[in-house]
Design goal:
The chain is an alpha/beta fold. The chain has 11 helices and 12 strands. The protein has a domain of 211 residues: Spore Coat Polysaccharide Biosynthesis Protein SpsA, Chain A (Alpha-Beta Complex). α6 crosses α7. It is globular.
Length: 309
């Protein structure tokens, strides 16, 4: 109970600090095959989403948006989002997404939507708790050259077999489903064929020609057999599947660190151009809101939509 109260209070403070995002002018949309996909918790993450979407788009400069609301989206909220995104948005209700042989929940609907769209579009998966604070040259280049990208913080591409062997050397860490799943990759029937990269599921690029729904559904079924259905259903299994999809795409780009980083107290924010503000830390001293304020103010002043720092 106390945790929920503290979290609601933290959200309330965040909403007050970033309320100015609703006073910023709409984006200038440049249509293109790019699709920017986000799952949005209603109503808590709507302002956070607008900050993430508008700061990212100002650095990329083209494409359209796809939003997966986690529950019924009130008409006034949908109208607010449409106004800020200049109407270039499609809403896909979470419950309407076909998960096939995969599980429902845990962001699996979001991943499968990205993969379905990537049969004909380049797709960027953008979490609401992300912030584009500087030039995103590497992301623009990845999109232009049809290469998937991952926020990997220095982690390399490895085979399933090598990933599993390395994970098993640190058994004291095998508590989270990501650690458990990575250790199990050594037992995958095609462990020498497939590649893997440990990366964040909060910001990822899926290129046409990458792993598709059929491969992900098969991967899901194999992982259930390796780690158990209940374990695999824990939060984080979708991130493992996302990492698998990106690692086996055409010449994936591993974004440089710390330019692209998951934001923790150990990260020097001044060195970061794109940050994923992890839930554990995003409200500590309202770090996400405070990093957002100068960007919001720039939009309120009418600063030009940027594609470079």
């Amino acid at each position: 109970m106390l945790f929920r109260i503290k979290r609601r209070l933290a959200y309330w403070r965040y909403q007050r600090l970033v309320g100015g995002i609703e006073e910023t002018p709409p984006l200038t949309i440049v249509d293109s095959p790019l699709r920017i996909v986000s799952q949005v918790a209603v109503p808590w993450d709507v302002r956070m989403y607008l900050v993430a979407a508008k700061t990212f788009y100002r650095r990329i400069g083209h494409g359209r948006f796809v939003i997966i609301p986690d529950r019924t989206l009130p008409r006034e909220t949908a109208d607010l989002i449409r106004r800020h995104l200049d109407g270039a948005v499609e809403f896909l209700p979470l419950a309407d997404i076909d998960v096939g042989r995969c599980q429902r929940g845990g962001c699996w609907e979001r991943l499968l939507t990205c993969l379905d769209l990537a049969t004909r579009h380049y797709v960027v998966q953008l979490d609401c708790d992300t912030l584009a604070m500087g030039d995103l040259r590497e992301v623009r280049e990845a999109i232009a050259s049809n290469r998937p990208f991952a926020l990997a913080e220095g982690a390399p591409l490895r085979s399933f077999a090598e990933t599993g062997r390395l994970a098993r050397r640190r058994p004291e860490e095998l508590r989270h489903i990501v650690d458990v799943a990575e250790a199990a990759l050594a037992d995958h029937p095609e462990a020498e064929r497939w590649r893997y990269v440990r990366a964040s599921g909060g910001f990822a690029g899926f290129a046409p020609g990458s792993i598709g729904r059929n491969e992900i559904e098969s991967f899901h079924e194999i992982m259930v057999s390796l780690v158990g259905r209940d374990r695999w259903r824990q939060w984080g299994s979708e991130q493992v599947a996302s990492n698998f999809a990106i690692a086996n795409g055409p010449n994936p780009v591993l974004l440089p660190f710390p330019d692209y980083a998951n934001i923790t107290p150990a990260i020097e924010l001044a060195r970061v151009r794109f940050g994923h503000f992890l839930g554990t830390y995003r409200f500590q001293n309202q770090i996400l809101a405070r990093a957002s304020l100068p960007l919001i103010e720039g939009m309120r002043r009418g600063d030009a939509q940027l594609r470079a720092a």
